[in-house]
Amino acid sequence: MKKPIITLLTDFGTKDHYVASMKGVILSINPRCLLIDITHQVSPHDIREGAFILSNAYSHFPKGTIHLAVVDPGVGGARRPLLLVTQNYFFMGPDNGLFTMISRKERVDQIIALDKKKYHHPEVSTTFHGRDIFAPVAAHLSMGVKPNVLGHKIDSLFCLGFEGPFVKEGKLLGEIVHIDTFGNLVSNIDEGGHIRFIQGRPFVIRVGGEIIRGLKKGYWEGKKDEPIALFGSGGFLEISVKEGNAQKMLKMKRGDPIWISTKFQASSSK
Predict the structure, then answer these.
(1) What pTM was computed for the model?
(2) Under a CB-based contact definition with an 8 Å cutoff, are residues 77 and 102 in contact?
(3) DSSP state of 33
(4) Which residues pair with 46 in a beta bridge?
(5) 121-130 per-position pLDDT tens digit
(6) Which CATH class is domain 166-268?
(7) Distances (CA, A) of 250 to 121, 225, 239, 247
(8) Could you write out the DSSP letters of every residue in 100-141?
(9) 226: how many CB neighbours lie within 10 A of its CB?
(10) All structural domains of the chain with their residue ranges
(11) What's the fold here for domain 5-153?
């Protein structure tokens, strides 16, 4: 029998005991689990960042993987602890928008509110549901407990307003949605949308005060300290600087605009 896989994504960092405590609870219930860290370095309380990272990582795991994600600034409040059952995976975490992008990419078959206390820690802290609710429930799920036994079915989940790129005044307008460890600026413009917009025409990309012409195939094609554009491993347009940091060079932040134009006269407007 294959070992059940549980992944963990949090904003807990690794300095404190939080991640280890969650793993300890899971392994105490099911010592056969294979625990995989996606990341624990999500910016504190940043639900959007957690949602983006999870949506780029989850599908690379075997079917049946349990993805446990906790970025939960409202812990102990009114938001519900959820289990999403999709065609291929299980997702567990707070109902605060963390699974917005998942719900758009995966067919959701069931949404379970995790209210069966039998499967929680005997004493549930109001500040650490990752340890006291999500970890034990994930472990029981990995042992074969059926999802509907863990709580009651509900019809909806809370979703954040992730807006896609749109066309306005002859430009494809997007925004920076993620900045990775290397300072690469990842946009919400996907490769398919880019191809449909340019229709084989030459184009320029405007980001911050820079105009970038065309795309590179990989980071190696860039010149040192020169911003380049390419489609990264997640399929989104990103801006990078070879052996540098695009965020620092261009002084960009999440939410800042990026656009594509097939009209080269746009390159003269700063």
Answers:
(1) 0.89
(2) no
(3) -
(4) none
(5) 999 999 999 9
(6) mainly beta
(7) 47, 11, 10, 5
(8) HHHHHHS-EEEEEE---GGGS-SS--SS-HIIIIIHHHHHHH
(9) 13
(10) 5-153, 166-268
(11) Rossmann fold (3.40.50)
